[in-house]
Each structure stands twice: as C-alpha cells, then as structure tokens.
Amino acid sequence: MDRHPLDRHPLRTLFTLTGARSRRASSWDRSGGNRDYFVVGPGETVTLLEHDGPGCITHVYCALAFPELTDYRDAVLRCYWDGEATPSVEVPLGDFFGLAHARIRLVHSALVSINPGFGASHGLSAYFPMPFASGARITLEHRGAQPLGGLFPALWYHIDYDTYDRPPPDDALRFHAQWRQEKPTVAVGPQPNVQLHEGVNLDGAQNYVALEATGAGQMVGLLLQINNLAGGWYGEGDDMVFIDGEAWPPSIHGTGTEEIFGGGACPAREYAGPYHGFHLIESPDYAGLVGAYRWFVQDPIRFTRSLRWTVEHGHANNFANEYASVAYWYQTEPHAAFPPLPGRDALRPPLPAIYDEARAAFAAAVLQALQSLPDQGPLYRVAAVGELFYAGRFDEALQRLRVG
Length: 404
Known about the structure:
There is one protein chain. By secondary structure, the chain is an alpha+beta fold. It has 3 domains: 17-163, Sandwich (Jelly Rolls); 174-331, Jelly Rolls (Sandwich), CATH 2.60.120; 355-402. Helices cover 14% and strands 34% of the residues. The chain has 7 helices and 22 strands. A hairpin with a 5-residue loop joins strand 7 (112-116) and strand 8 (122-126). Helix 5 packs antiparallel against helix 6 (377-390), helix 5 crosses helix 7 (394-402) and helix 6 (377-390) packs antiparallel against helix 7. The radius of gyration is 22 Å and the shape is globular. It starts with 20 loop residues before the first strand and ends with a helix.
C-alpha cells in the first residue's frame, strides 16, 4: 500500500496520535498561592522529578531572579534513568544549559536557549529528548554557602515529559551529559604558548579529553570553555576523535578549534546559531574567557564500542590554558564511570579582582531597591544593571551604580 504524503511531513508528530500523555514537574505553589518556586538551602539536594514507569523528558527549564553569579556552578544537576545508582547526567546547572564560565550570553540554538528576563534574571531551556523505560529521577544539589538564588533565594523550574503505556523500543538510547576540566593544561614542547610553530602531534596522547565513553551510541553535543591565560590566538588545536578503540590516526581529525564550532579563521566576535556558536569571546585579542558550543544534530558522532573525543590545546598541545567542557551523548547502559566531579572551589568560575567590589555594590543597590516595594520602579532600574553584571562587565556595572 502506498504511503500517504503526510507520512513524510517533517512535522508529522504534531498532528498524529501517538498514545503518549503529557506531564510536567514544576515548582508550582502547592498551597495554591503565587510562591511558584523552590527554596534550595546551602548543602541541600532537592528532587525536581521522580516518575515511575516509561516516558521521555522533552524540555527542561529553570530561572533565578537575583542569583549569585557563582550559583550557576554551585548547583549541580543530576539525572538517573531506570533505577541506576550513578547518574547519567552530572553537570553544574548553568553549564548544562550552555552558560560558559557563569557569564550570561543570550543563545537561541536548536537544543539550548538562554533568554532575557528583566535584567538580573534569565531563563534557561534545554530540549534534549531523554527516554527512560522504568523510571526517571532528577535532582539538584546546591553546594553554595547561601541559599540558591542570592538576594532572592528562589528556583523556578519546569520539566516537561511524556509517559507511555509500554517501555521505549530496545534501540532507544539513554541521554548522558558529563563535566570535565583541566586547569591548566600542560604546554608540550620547547615553544610554549606560541601560535605557529613546527612541533608535531602524531598520537593525540596529550590532548584535552572531553569524553571517554564505553558502549554503543552517538555523541550529540559539546560545550567547550577556555580561560586563555597565555594570551594570543590559542585555537590552532585540532579535534581528534578516536572511535571504537582505534589507534592513530583517528577516524575524525580536524584542522583547528574554530572549525569545530563553525567559525571563520580566528573568531573575534561572538555569535550563536542553531548548531554552532562562539557565544563568549571576552576580548577581541583572544585573551581571557572563551565559550563555544557545537550540536551534532545533522552529523552525530557514532560509535559501537567506545568513543574518545579530544582536542589539542594549541598546535601539538603547546598552550597552557584552563579547559572545561560538557559532553552530551546517547548510549546503551551501563555507562562507564564518570570522573569525580571537582569540589566547589575547583569549579568556581574565573573572577577578576574587581568582582568582589562589583558584587557588593550591586547587592547593596538591590537591597535598597527592595525597600521601595511595592513601588517596583527602583527595583527594575537596578535590575537592568544586572545585564552588565551577569555578562561579566563588572567595570561598567560599577560605573552605572556610581552614577545612580
């Protein structure tokens, strides 16, 4: 029997019956009031979702109002599928949503978005499908010294998901996301921190490693963060992806760091697209903080036994910089053990000397504005300074606060 043309419609799932039922876990006020948020205390772990039975998470959202900038690293998101003892997702909250170095940049991509609020608040969304057969549990641990959310200790969140009458098919892989860092990388060879040189790399052994997975599956995304301590163009490093335990040379060998993320040579301006982005470039001379993402939606990196995703830190690994990453992938279970998540201090984002002064001034202005409630004008005016503060433009935020 011939297939109907609608069977090939790209949005077919929007107008056909599937038997799935839509559900949401959220921070709504169980008393019926308007306090639609969770308060997460220091050292506390809260459960955001717990569901028994088969299903698939379709959307995760959260927002804070006046957070500590460090909240985005102090809170750790973990996801457990089908009763597993160790999480398949273990990533600092902000980084999971593509927020590099805890510096806000607006992103509108195929799989994550960072959207504006009223200045000091931003909405974070992720759209990775996350299927499970017998149950799902999502938790958030807050390792900060004060309640999560800073001057307004509140977490708003939604987790949208489908439930099913029967488990997903056997070929439905489980979603994973993992944090890694190396601070700093070790410069290899006699010419450290030199952009162009004649060194060679013929094994990839000293590369930065973003993912080592065992099983069968496909890598679908990468967030790469660099603190360019050395200065100058750091991005001569090639990506090298070793599939199914292969020796040198790898099946996938790149030509430079910017090519991974879709940029032209040596990007000096920020951009954020559906599948590629250099969404954080702190300085046009490449010094300081860099953040980039790549979604392998059209071209997932497939493996049947193992995957080792690596990138050089400078050509032939000759740059000494701080690297961190989040890898996103799907695979069969069980997954390989994750590296231990670093402690709170080791995860702290890079902050300049002026940060403490800017933070104190911003907090004082917010507290003063709160005293004017219910007149919201002063609060909204000082919240607008949050656009500068949370972007890491601390000098400009201080200047705005000083002139009132």
